[in-house]
């Protein structure tokens, strides 16, 4: 029931589909860029019914497909681009779906003035699954091939460590987009921990980048994603203010890939680097194909908590999309859970990150703070200069900040750990929604050793998405740290040192605590 206190009107109820007749212009960057991204209206809304499936569509890895497939996708997208802008199936309308659901074109139905937002909460995975579903079905119908399946950008694999060639190699292709990063064209390697402030850094070797990316994937899918709320993101119910907390994959690598892909010469990072414009780049749908694939993979990994949420407020949340026949269709989260029911699966590709556990860098930290390994964080804290007292929060995160955070329990048994995950909560995050924001979180490490170290707990990172509600301060970052604490040998410590390292943008932090969640 997190967040219910944020609005006097809030009741425990699902977020209903928006009333598209009340769609409004969005102000994408303050007053700078008012954009109309509303869909055509329709008087008739039909409820989604799973279509009869004769043959599953198999979504392929973008780097593995042949010429014939690329030509087919190019042709389908060309036809989609040629439809008049007023046609809900047109590429410009498809792109605007993202803008409307992400830049507060809609209020929540029944809650005027309360924004509908599909990021930074448990709506993230299901909304984007539906979005791709209809995009794919429309493309298939435009070429008369109902088995057509969109590709996924396999960025969790060495084969997908650059922008997929189908989107970049032919400037005349419908798959090409000029509003993309110039610096990051292939063969430039994708950094899943990308931040703007890293731009000046040296270019990594292939093997180093692969190793680091694998460690990041391990953290976001395995060690840091052991519960539903860590993976899916915070709950978001009718009447509540949005952006409770992002899920592990949404935060990283989903968001850094957006920023990395957008054109750095554009003030607002278009296309991929800003929510209002992200859907204008065909590569967006391949990026989200892999995000969607991660949902399926997460459920298939061992662990009894790796299941879909059963809360009816999630299951009954609804969205509206136009289908391939221009019908306005109401869909629910419940209907999105099984991709086979929607008629598609992903090509099986190996998961090189599955065993890529990060390594502890504790010795260098010990050297820096002048303690020996094995000394408790509380003792270590005494030798750390400039520790910020927890009582000083809220603070503006303008410099590297280290705090000592008490743990409510210590030395837990294996069974206890399986029952409840230890979660580091960075709360009251207040950030500039117009700009790229990133800060990193380390536990028991002063060296900022990088994402391939066990001490790296994760990052808060957002895509610019100006919205009309700017005063929200309820956003949290939740990081699962049970496995991390074992890896750095802090299981029996009463407290841990948490270091926040600002990377991009302006952000305030309200507080830090450790909680246990099943
Ligand atoms: Cu709706 Cu990748 O964002």
TrEMBL record:
Keywords: Copper, Disulfide bond, Metal-binding, Oxidoreductase, Thioether bond, Thylakoid. Gene3D superfamilies: Di-copper center containing domain from catechol oxidase (1.10.1280.10). Its cofactor is Cu(2+). It comes from the Eukaryota. One of its GO terms (molecular function) is metal ion binding. It holds the Pfam family PPO1_DWL. Coiled coil: none annotated. GO terms for cellular component: chloroplast thylakoid lumen. Belongs to the tyrosinase family. This is Tyrosinase copper-binding domain-containing protein.
């Amino acid at each position: 029931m997190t967040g219910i206190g944020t609005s006097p009107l809030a009741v425990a109820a699902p977020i209903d589909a928006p009333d598209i007749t009340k769609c409004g212009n969005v102000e994408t960057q303050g007053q700078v860029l008012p954009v109309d991204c509303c869909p055509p209206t329709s008087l008739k809304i039909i409820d989604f019914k799973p279509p009869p499936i004769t043959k599953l569509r198999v979504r392929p890895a973008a780097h593995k497909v042949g010429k014939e497939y690329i030509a087919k996708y190019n042709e389908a997208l060309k036809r989609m681009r040629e439809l008049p802008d007023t046609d809900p199936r047109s590429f410009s309308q498809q792109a605007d779906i993202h803008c409307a659901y992400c830049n507060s074109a809609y209020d929540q139905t029944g809650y005027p003035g309360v924004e509908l937002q599909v990021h930074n909460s448990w709506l993230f995975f299901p909304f984007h699954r539906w979005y791709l579903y209809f995009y794919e079905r429309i493309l298939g119908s435009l070429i008369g091939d109902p088995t057509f399946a969109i590709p996924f950008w396999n960025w969790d694999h060495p084969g997908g460590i650059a922008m997929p060639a189908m989107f970049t190699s032919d400037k005349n292709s419908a798959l090409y987009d000029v509003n993309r990063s110039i610096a990051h064209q292939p063969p430039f390697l994708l950094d899943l921990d990308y931040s703007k402030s890293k731009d000046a850094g040296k270019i990594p070797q292939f093997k180093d980048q692969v190793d680091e990316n694998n460690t990041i994937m391990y953290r976001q899918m395995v060690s840091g994603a052991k519960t539903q709320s860590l993976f899916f993101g915070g709950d978001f119910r009718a009447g509540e203010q949005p952006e409770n907390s992002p899920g592990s994959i949404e935060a990283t690598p989903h968001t850094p890939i957006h920023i990395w892909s957008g054109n750095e010469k554009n003030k607002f990072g278009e296309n991929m680097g800003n929510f209002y414009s992200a859907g204008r780049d065909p590569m967006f749908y391949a990026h989200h194909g892999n995000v969607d694939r991660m949902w399926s993979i997460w459920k298939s990994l061992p662990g009894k908590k790796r299941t879909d949420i059963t809360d009816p407020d999630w299951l009954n949340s609804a969205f509206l999309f136009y289908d391939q026949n221009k019908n306005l269709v109401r869909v629910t989260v419940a209907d999105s859970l099984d991709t086979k029911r929607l008629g598609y699966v992903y090509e099986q590709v190996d998961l090189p990150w599955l065993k890529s556990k990060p390594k502890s860098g504790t010795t260098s930290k010990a050297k820096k703070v002048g303690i020996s390994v094995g000394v408790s964080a509380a003792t270590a804290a005494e030798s750390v200069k400039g520790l910020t007292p927890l009582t000083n929060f809220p603070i503006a995160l303008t410099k590297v900040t280290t705090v000592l955070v008490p743990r409510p329990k210590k030395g837990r048994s294996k069974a206890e750990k399986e029952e409840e995950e230890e979660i580091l909560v960075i709360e009251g995050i207040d950030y500039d929604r117009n700009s790229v924001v990133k800060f990193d979180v380390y536990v028991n490490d002063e060296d900022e050793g990088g994402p391939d170290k066990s001490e790296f707990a994760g990052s808060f990172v957002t895509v610019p998405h100006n919205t009309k509600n700017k005063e929200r301060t309820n956003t949290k970052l939740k990081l699962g740290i049970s496995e991390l604490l074992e890896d750095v040998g802090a299981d029996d410590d009463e407290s841990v040192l948490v270091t926040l390292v600002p990377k991009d943008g302006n952000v305030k932090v309200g507080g830090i605590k450790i909680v246990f969640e099943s």
